[in-house]
Amino acid sequence: MVAAAGSFAAATTAHGATPPRVGVAVTTCTTGSAPEYRSAIFTATVSRGPRAKRMAARFRLLRTSRLAVDTGDPAPVAAKVALPAWNAWARSKRGRSALVVSRRVDGLSGPAAYAVDVETRWYDAKGRVIARRTTRSVACDQPDYAPDIEASVTPRAGGLDVSVYNRGRSVSAAGMVSVLSGGVQIGRAEVAPLAPGARMTVAVSIESCPAAPLVVTVKTGDARELSYGNNEVRDVPCPG
Questions:
Q1: Which of 68, 105, 170, 219 has the maximal Cβ count within 10 Å?
Q2: Among 2.60.40, 2.115.10, 3.30.70, 1.20.1050, what is the CATH number of 7-142?
Q3: Which strands, in side-by-side order, build the sheet including 39-47?
Q4: How far is it, in rounded angstroms, from Cα 199 to Cα 201?
Q5: Which CATH code fits 149-236?
Q6: 226 pLDDT exceeds 50?
Q7: Is the distance from CB of 60 to CB of 80 less than 8 angstroms?
Q8: Under DSSP, is residue 57 helix (H, G, I), strand (E, B) or coil?
Q9: Opening angle at CA 81, ends 46 and 9, nearest 5
């Protein structure tokens, strides 16, 4: 993904004039199933402007969780990500017409959007700050990489056939299919790990048929197994 320049905000100068513009772009945004494939490069271009002799820029990485967006949070918060290597200011040489600085971050996680705030300063011939500006980039979006387990049930004589499908972007952990009636477990079977896009059918035997409708759940060892709620099937008729 290649993004255009971001928004402009918080601009001040020593004399109230508008400081020079700053362009901030996402020049590279990569995604992938493994963390080493997920990275972003942000680039800031700072023009010199009148009276300025040097420019300086410093980056701050921001992460906005997409889980907040998916759950209807009207104002998800962009949290600062601590990157000590980004704390130092990048400075231009005297008299240069522009300062161009890039910063790269690897091992991104999802679902989240990553952006940067770029603080910029302009200095006069005596080294005094004569203008400041903070500019935010557009985002590098990372999707949800967690397994997403989906289940469907087919009754049969003596039990249930449970189809388990991983529609997520990573391998699911081993787990268990449980059949409940009135909160009591009446059947269970193991589920092997599933690759992304893989499906398997698990046979669960049921010795007796209770009167209450059945609830079938598939639980794996993944921390976010319930993110979509499709791993539970309710009101399953008891097999004849």
A1: 105
A2: 2.60.40
A3: 22-30, 39-47, 98-106
A4: 7
A5: 2.60.40.10
A6: no
A7: yes
A8: strand
A9: 40
